[in-house]
Write a structure and sequence with these properties.
This protein has 2 domains: 4-260, Acetylglutamate kinase-like (Carbamate kinase, 3-Layer(aba) Sandwich), CATH 3.40.1160.10; 267-422, VC0802-like, CATH 3.30.2130.10. It is built from 12 helices and 20 strands. By secondary structure, the protein is of the alpha/beta class. The chain is globular, with a radius of gyration of 23 Å. The protein has an 8-stranded mixed beta sheet with strand order 3-6-2-1-9-11-12-10, with helices on both faces. Bound molecules: aspartic acid and magnesium ion. Magnesium ion (MG) binds at residues 28, 60, 170, 172.
C-alpha cells in the first residue's frame, strides 16, 4: 500500500515519479454530454497517455440518456420485464463508449470499446440492481499490453445466467472501482461536473468548501446520507479493495478530492461535512406488543420484498406496547406500507402510518470519535433554529436527525456555520 500511495502522490505532483501508473478514468453523464464534451474527454485521455500512464476509461451514458430510456420504457410498457429493461438501459453507455473510442482514434490514440460483458464483469441475476460477483479482466489486460486504451461501458455486466444486467442507477462508479481493483490500478479518477466533494451541497450552502481529502469511512457515510457525488456501493468497493479515489472535474480538470484510507495519528476535524437527503419516507407501525420475534418478523417481511430499510427507531414500551418507525427510499414506500399492512394483524399492531414529507440532515466527521459534545451542539443548533427533531440515529462518525423536509436546508446551513465549516 505504501508503494502504491507513493505512485499516486507522484502522479499528483505531475509525474515526478518515473514509474508508469495505471489509472482508471471514469467520466459521468455530463462529462460526455455532447460531441464537444466527448472530444474534450478524448483529449484528456490522450494527454494522460502522452504523460506515460496507462489508462482504462469507463463511461456513463450521455447526459440524460438513461432517464430518456426509462421514459420510453414507461411509454410502451407497464410490465417492463426487468431483463428487457436492463437490455434497454445498457444501450446508453454503449453509445458513449463507441463515440469516445472514435474520438480517440482521431487523436491517434488506439482505443477499443468493451461492453460490461466483454470487459468480464460478471454479476448476479438481480436485474436492475445487480451486484458484481467477479471481474475477469483478461481482455482489458490484453488491450493494455497491446498499447490500446480500453473504453468500457459503465453500469452493466453479464449475469451468471448470461443475461445482460445493470448495476443500479449511478452504477458506472461501481464499474470503475471494480475494474481499478481487478487491475490493481494506482488510482480511480471519477470525473464529474463538480470540482470534488464539498463540506455541504454548495447549492444549499454557498460558503461550502471543497475537501482535499476524506477517508473512506467518511465518504461512505456521506454517500449514504445524501452526498450525491459518489454512488454508495462504489465507495464500499473502493474501501474493501483499497482503491484510492480521486473525485474531480472534467470541466476545469483541476485536482479535486482524494478519498483514501484514514492515516493514523492524524489530527481529525471534528466535523468534516454536513449532508442532507429528502429522498426517504417514514413508516410507523404502532402499538406492537413488546415480545421477542415481532421486529424480526416485520423486517424479514420487508427484506423479502427487497426493501432497503435505513433508520430504525423503536421506543421503550409503554404498557407493553411499542411503536416501530423506520425510513425507506420513497420509491420503496408503497411496497413497505403493503408489507406492514399485510403483517399488521400477525404483529397485533394498532395501526400503520406513513409520512413522505421528511428530510434528514447528518453531520459526518472521523474526529467525532474523540470529541465529546458534538451531539449536544447539533441539537442546540437545531433548537436555536426552532427545528424539531423527529428521529435520531448515530454511528461512530455520524449523527443524523430526521426533520420536516421543509426545514432541511435551514438545518444544513445552521449546522455548517455552527461547526465552523463556512
Ligand atoms: N447511466 C446510468 C445512470 O444514469 C449509470 C451512471 O450514470 O452511472 O444511472
Ligand atoms: Mg453518476
Amino acid at each position: 500500500m505504501l508503494a502504491r500511495t507513493g505512485v499516486v502522490a507522484g502522479h499528483v505532483a505531475s509525474c515526478i515519479v518515473a514509474a508508469v501508473a495505471l489509472l482508471v478514468q471514469k467520466f459521468g453523464g455530463t462529462s460526455v454530454g455532447d460531441a464537444d464534451r466527448i472530444r474534450a474527454v478524448a483529449d484528456h485521455v490522450a494527454r494522460t497517455r502522452r504523460a506515460g500512464d496507462q489508462v482504462v476509461v469507463v463511461v456513463s451514458a450521455m447526459g440524460k440518456t438513461t432517464d430518456e430510456l426509462v421514459r420510453l420504457a414507461n411509454e410502451v410498457s407497464a410490465a417492463q420485464p426487468p431483463r428487457e429493461l436492463d437490455m434497454l438501459l445498457t444501450t446508453g453507455e454503449r453509445i458513449s463508449m463507441s463515440l469516445l473510442s472514435m474520438a480517440l482514434a482521431d487523436l491517434g490514440v488506439e482505443a477499443a470499446s468493451f461492453t460490461g460483458s466483454q470487459a468480464g464483469i460478471i454479476t448476479d441475476t438481480d436485474h436492475t440492481r445487480a451486484k458484481i460477483l467477479e471481474v475477469r479482466a483478461d481482455r482489458l489486460r490484453e488491450a493494455l499490453d497491446d498499447g490500446r486504451v480500453p473504453v468500457v461501458a459503465g453500469f452493466q455486466g453479464v449475469s451468471t445466467e448470461r443475461d445482460i444486467t445493470t448495476l443500479g442507477r449511478g452504477g458506472s462508479d461501481v464499474t470503475a472501482v471494480a475494474l481499478a481493483a481487478a487491475l490493481g490500478a494506482d488510482a480511480c479518477e471519477i470525473y464529474t461536473d463538480v470540482t470534488g466533494v464539498f463540506s455541504a451541497d454548495p447549492r444549499v450552502v454557498p460558503s461550502a468548501h471543497r475537501l482535499a481529502r476524506v477517508s473512506f469511512d467518511e465518504m461512505l457515510e456521506m454517500a449514504a446520507t445524501g452526498g450525491r457525488v459518489l454512488m454508495l456501493r462504489s465507495v464500499e468497493f473502493a474501501r474493501n479493495h483499497r482503491v484510492p479515489l480521486h473525485v474531480r472535474s472534467s470541466f476545469t480538470w483541476e485536482p479535486g478530492t482524494w478519498v483514501v484510507e484514514e492515516e493514523e495519528g492524524m489530527e481529525q476535524a471534528m466535523v468534516t461535512a454536513v449532508t442532507h437527503d429528502t429522498s426517504e419516507a417514514k413508516v410507523t407501525v404502532a402499538g406492537v406488543p413488546d415480545r421477542p420475534g415481532l421486529a424480526a418478523r416485520l423486517f424479514r417481511g420487508l427484506a423479502d420484498r427487497g426493501v432497503n430499510v435505513d433508520m430504525i427507531v423503536q421506543n421503550t414500551s409503554a404498557h407493553g406496547l411499542t411503536d416501530i418507525s423506520f425510513t425507506v427510499p420513497k420509491t420503496d414506500l408503497a411496497t413497505s406500507v403493503e408489507v406492514c399492512d399485510a403483517l399488521s394483524a400477525e404483529l397485533e399492531a394498532t395501526g400503520v402510518t406513513s409520512d413522505s414529507d421528511i428530510g434528514r440532515v447528518s453531520l459526518i466527521g472521523a474526529g467525532m470519535k474523540s470529541h465529546p459534545g458534538v451531539t449536544a451542539t447539533m441539537f442546540e443548533t437545531l433548537a436555536a433554529a426552532s427545528i424539531n427533531i423527529e428521529m435520531i440515529s448515530t454511528s461512530s462518525i455520524r449523527i443524523s436527525c430526521v426533520v420536516r423536509d421543509s426545514v432541511v436546508e435551514d438545518a444544513v446551513g445552521a449546522l455548517h456555520t455552527a461547526f465552523g465549516l463556512d
